[in-house]
Amino acid sequence: MINDTLFYLAAVPAVILFGVSKGGFGSGLGILAVPLLAMVVSPIQAAAIMLPILCFMDLLGLWAYRGKWIWPELRILLPASLIGIGTGTLMFEFMSPARLRLLLGVVAIAFTLHHCLQTYLSKKTHPKLLTPAIGICAAAVAGFTSFIAHAGGPPITMYLLRRGINRTQFVASTVVFFAVVNYVKLVPYTWLGQFDASNLITSLILTPLAPLSIGLGVWLHNRVTDRFFFQVAYAMLFLVGVKLIFDGITSL
Known about the structure:
Layout: H1 5-24, H2 33-38, H3 43-64, H4 71-91, H5 97-124, H6 132-149, H7 153-160, H8 167-191, H9 197-206, H10 209-221, H11 226-250
C-alpha cells in the first residue's frame, strides 16, 4: 500500500476524472489519469494501480448503458484492439519509466493539439464519415496506448465521433470496447507481475471512488455540455503533458 499524501492528491482527482469521463463522455479524457499519477510514481506502477479500478468502473458503465451500444461498430473494433494489446505486451520490457513519461507527455500534447485542430476544422467544414478500415487502425492504436497507459480513449473517440451515431450510442459503445480491452489486459498484466500486494491494496483503497465518479458522469451526461468538460480537461492534459516531457528528458 502506498502511504504518500502527494500520491493521493494526484490519485483521487485522476480516478474521479476517469470515472466521470467514462460514465458520461466516452473515456476520451481517461488519458489524463496515468500521466497525473506518473508525476508521483512510476508510470508502470500507475497503470497497474488503475487497471483493477477501471475494470470495476466498466461493470458499472455496462449496467448504466446496457443495450445502447452499436454492435456493428464493436465487431470491427474489438478484434483489432487485440493487436495493440499484444504489441504492448511484447514491448513492455523496453519501457523504462523515463521513456514512458516522455511518450505519455508527447501523446498527451498530441491529443490536445488534435482536439484543438479538430474543433477549428469542424467550424469550417462538415466532417466526413470515417471508414471501417480506419476504425481497425484506431482500435489497434487504442489497444496499444490502453495497454501502456490506459490511454486508448482518444483514437476510439476520433473514429466513433465520425461514424454518425448519437451521443448515448457513442458513450455506450466506448464502455463496451474498454470493458473488453481492460479485462483482456488483466492477463498480460498478471503475467508481467504488475499486481503485487502494494498495488492491489492501493487499488482497493481508491475503488470506492469508482461508483461515485461513474454516477457523477452519468448524471452529467445530460446536464453539462461536452464543450465545457473537454475544454477544462484538455487544458489540464496539456499542462500535465509538458510536465511529463520535462521529467522524461531530464531523467533519460
